[in-house]
Design brief:
About 30% of the residues lie in helices and about 20% in strands. It is an alpha+beta fold and about 110 residues long. Strand 1 and strand 2 form a beta hairpin. The two termini are about 20 Å apart.
Length: about 110
């Protein structure tokens, strides 16, 4: 069985596969950094919590840098709820992506 950290890494990899880097036309997309919080065993989008709306970035790389920064800061100063940060193309996510659906608080790293 994978550790909490291992499951988190698997979810991050799946999220990158689920959301490819370019559209059907092959053009560059805008990217959105989304956060989902596990509140009472349910993943809730950040926009439901004041101040945690998705943020737009021009490139996948910029979104990935900000995602890494957010994850580092959350390790330094844990949030009230477990959080998962996800970059998505074209617009904010309204619901948790399939890799998060059916996962619960114990599925994310416990060092937060």
């Amino acid at each position: 069985m994978a550790s909490g950290r291992g499951r988190f890494a698997i979810l991050a990899i799946i999220a990158l596969v689920v959301f490819p880097a370019t559209g059907a036309s092959g053009g560059e997309r805008s990217w959105w950094l989304n956060v989902f919080f596990n509140v009472n065993g349910e993943w809730r989008p950040g926009h439901e919590i004041d101040g945690w709306a998705a943020r737009r970035y021009d490139t996948r790389e910029e979104c990935a840098r900000r995602k890494a920064f957010a994850e580092t800061e959350c390790r330094k100063a844990p949030l009230d709820y477990p959080a998962v940060w996800i970059c998505s193309p074209d617009g904010p996510l309204e619901e948790p992506p399939p890799p998060l659906q059916g996962t619960y608080c114990w599925d994310v790293p416990s060092d937060r």
